[in-house]
């Protein structure tokens, strides 16, 4: 029984990471209608920034999260304003291919700068955890979950309580109408993508605390972010949180099922994806399209 | 003579050259000073180009004609390769049998995943198929009789000529299939689905059957290429049989060349593969070739969304105005 409880807790903690990864992905998809295949690469840029700050300046990984956010915000704004805005009205295939190209360039540049060696961030407390009877809760995982939930809260406040956030939602609802009432589309698109990238950067910082990073380590997270958004439903912050936690649970419990192991992680994600798309296409909490 | 005729003439001459030149011995080719075919490396590149012609043309049938951008066609390639591997290595049967079985296995798999997945559209279909490619590779990587993480070794057949002709034959088959499809009722049905699926259904196109059939044909052709690749390379594993980069390359080739046309994917496959080989062969290593590929992808998508085939046959002129116009059409 305590074995099962431990698995559930680990699942929820892993789910926190998925929430962090999927928030920005969901925002960009919902508002800009872009499935950003470079999302995983942006996540890994964040992870490398945290790693550099940790190894060179000995800054605690959780304290470097705002730096990740700021750096990725700038990169994201430039990418959308300079490149992706050029094909935003083209058919889906083109934005898809473009973001794949961006992913390829970022991953290759990271490979040039940081080489393919495994890098890890290991603060002094990385091995310890909270002991509750026979159940162990690692501190870094707990910190990751807390940071992810905080991110979700921030995103909700930004979207619903600020002028820019309302403009972003307006663009998502009807871009022509938004333009008619004076919303600057180019700026709003770039701002949306920048926020999505900033969130990806923070997710990368969180990921670097428990997983060794390489330039290609972000690729699986793109597929997983997609599954989380499908599972939760598009267009609401709460849906992404629900989807992320549910997916974390499914993955941990699925891998501990007889006959399966962590080498089936992508296959499990894919099966979840297909089942949800066929059985409940709008996700757990999604609105009707 | 129109540009269109000239294009066909050049294509025909190039094809005749490709088919006939290797028949003369390599010595004779060298004496006659024929370019390209005197070199083993160029043979390899020519076979690779033909392989991508098959994959790009096959992708074009589901992605270009039907409008369902599959990102998982590499699964069919991998399944074809592993079918050949099992037939030749595990069952000790002749390679010719593999060439028959591989497309059947790939097509059967296309039916199984196609029926649920072809109900999805746009991003959903694209990412779901991307998942198919990743998941099938991962499952194969876990199966012990298929060599698991080590991969499968096939008995080596040393004949550059044989594999070149096999790939060329598969490429011709793929192009011919596209040409035939575009001239039949079936092809018009696929185009109707691409333009407006509801309208197609209303006028009596059995959309599910048409889509699954198109997916199947694409899978079968890709499966053949996979089988030939397996025997040619004589070693297959998850990385070379289920390479995600192959997946994107075939799509990029079809897009660069021009989707929905017969010769677009061929033009795209030839030009892109030669560019990739040049970038990779420049001594700078694969990292720069990846960066080059990524930048090329972005430039093509932004500036020539209708593909280079648009410039042939007098449809458009390659000019600064053309770039500016395509840019204006798609940007905000």
Count of distinct strands of chain B:
2
**Mean pLDDT value of chain B:** 83
Q: Give the biggest sheet of chain A.
A: 2 strands, antiparallel
Tell me the number of strands of chain A.
Answer: 2
Description:
The complex is a heterodimer of chains A (289) and B (332). Chain A has 11 helices and 2 strands. Chain A has one domain. In chain A, β1 and β2 form a beta hairpin. In chain A, α1 packs across α9 and α5 runs antiparallel to α8. Chain A starts with a helix and ends in a 10-residue tail after the last helix. Chain A has 289 residues and is mainly alpha-helical. By secondary structure, chain B is mostly helical. Chain B has 15 helices and 2 strands. The mean pLDDT of chain B is 83. Chains A and B meet through α4, α8, α9 and α11 of A and α6, α12, α14 and α15 of B.
How would you summarize this macromolecular structure in one to three sentences?
The complex is a heterodimer of chains A (289) and B (332). Helix content of chain A is 70%, strand content 3%.
